[in-house]
């Protein structure tokens, strides 16, 4: 069984909500990424979304944009990121890793080569922000290599397309909680609860909710109706100023552990 | 330049894009999920309006009475004589209201926005010509206008920034990335994704996700339709060669489209070779880039081996873009059009030559097309006709040219 499916299967058995932190690979320090991933797991991460930096992240707000710029200034490339996943897997064979990014770096690397190398490195799923279901054929090599294709669903997604997304979904469906860019602060849980309930009713995979979740309180509110909560910009922003690997890991633990606690009712 | 076609030559170039917005392998809809619904809504609205005689009548009426169309074709005799080769004919898009071809498209899209009930307009701009053209139509239609512009471009196109403000637009400086056109486009997309309900995004070039490459082309195609009829009327035949500058490629696509099935007409696009393609400081996506995905479509892009979009350079802000419209990528790969680089220095020399011989001050963008027309004229005999699209006037660039040539305007 794929690590993502296995993890959600365990969570369903225990009745827990998955906590999915997002970090930008190579940020804030290129040589801290593997340690940071382990720190996130220790603090209670169930799945790690590892952002592949891109020069033109058109769906991201300023926090992730700056993280991408920092990583690219440190010359972080696709080969580095896959190597970090490989190193992470040396000590952690269970926590699912999802690469999240934009299509051009994958296409230029070569989609088939990327699929093969990512699967070999121990990546479990790939979320390509600017590749909607209409362009799905482009990413078939990822599926062929055994990688799960994580799809986004937005408040603007029509019923017809939602049905297609539900049909094609693997791993989990990522529900974007509002129409906007990452890191914006206009989360209204009442509005999204109903929509997520409707998606969950039809979906064969768990539904994660992201965009606008920034702390224990907002995470707990979303956990009331979602299978998983994704936290990105708030975490990336909290780590941005760290200058040593230790500081990065302590910061990540300090940020994530209280959220885990809130989700577990502690 | 004479590469064998990489993709099959179609029987009818006017049959593109297909229903998915694809020009062969190029184009498409590569955007975040939130934007799919508004793009579908736009495609449906535009498809309906395109076949609506009332819409087309109002568009044509505005082009005639507000823009001042048709723009003439002018035989640049003194320039042609100076070169001593083929005859250079100039399609005078610089004579349009607001001074460039960009107004053709902004009027069309503003009419679409009005029909869709959207009252807030956003746009990106590089040289500021599209921003000015958008601010202009917003003033005329009473719409709110927000223009995203790279901080670097704001610095080198101050006159256009002021023009936009006079027209009532809000100009938002973009300080991310390279602070030029591509970053302005990113920021406009971010605005749109956040304000999809009431906002219409007027993209200024034949790039972006479907239906923009098709829609922007259709609104600019008036240039080529007019030019084709004018050639037959004034010269009794079609031109031998067409040339136009290509950044995103809207003026070029506008001129080329009507001639695509006239296989005897050679088509040459002039890209910004900046300081020279071998220096790496250029913006020649077709001549020196590779297929990739940027700003919602698959096309030729300038990027490194990790797929990161590289910073471009051109003396003209309007050509300073690392992608290009997907239909141009299609024309390149089918062999229908050639795309060549023109350097900053060549464009500036052409700028001066056209000023001196014809009394026409071209935009720096259009100067690339003039430079290419001059090169072609040198290679071809006197009885050949080269039709060059003069996409905009150069008043906005006087400051840049003076600075580059180390002339202090106050001391003149």
Can you describe what's shown?
The complex is a heterodimer of chains A (266) and B (412). In chain A, helix 2 (33-42) runs parallel beside helix 12 (245-263), helix 4 packs parallel to helix 6 and helix 10 crosses helix 12 (245-263). The model of chain A has no long low-confidence stretch (mean pLDDT 95). With 266 residues, chain A is an alpha/beta fold. In chain A, strands 5-4-3-2-1-9-8-7-6 form a nine-stranded parallel sheet. Chain A is built from twelve helices and nine strands. Chain A starts with a helix and ends with a helix. Chain A has a domain at 3-147 and 223-261: Aldolase class I (TIM Barrel), CATH 3.20.20.70. Chain A has helices spanning 3-14, 33-42, 62-73, 78-91, 103-109, 111-121, 140-144, 159-168, 189-202, 216-223, 233-239, 245-263; strands spanning 18-24, 48-51, 97-101, 125-128, 148-149, 151-153, 173-176, 207-210, 228-231. In chain A, helix 7 links the parallel strand 4 and strand 5. Chain B has 16 helices and 14 strands. Chain B has 412 residues and is of the alpha/beta class. In chain B, 63% of the residues are buried. Chain B has helices at 33-50, 53-67, 77-83, 102-115, 129-141, 151-156, 158-166, 181-194, 212-220, 222-235, 250-256, 285-288, 326-333, 344-358, 364-379, 398-404, and strands spanning 22-23, 26-30, 73-75, 87-92, 120-125, 144-150, 170-174, 199-201, 241-246, 266-274, 290-294, 296-301, 338-343, 385-390. The longest helix of chain B has 18 residues, at 33-50. Chain B starts with 21 loop residues before the first strand and ends in an 8-residue tail after the last helix. In chain B, the strands form three sheets. In chain B, strands 3-4-14-9-10-13 form a six-stranded mixed sheet, with helices on both faces. In chain B, strands 1-2-12-11 form a four-stranded antiparallel sheet. The interface between A and B is large, with 41 and 40 residues.
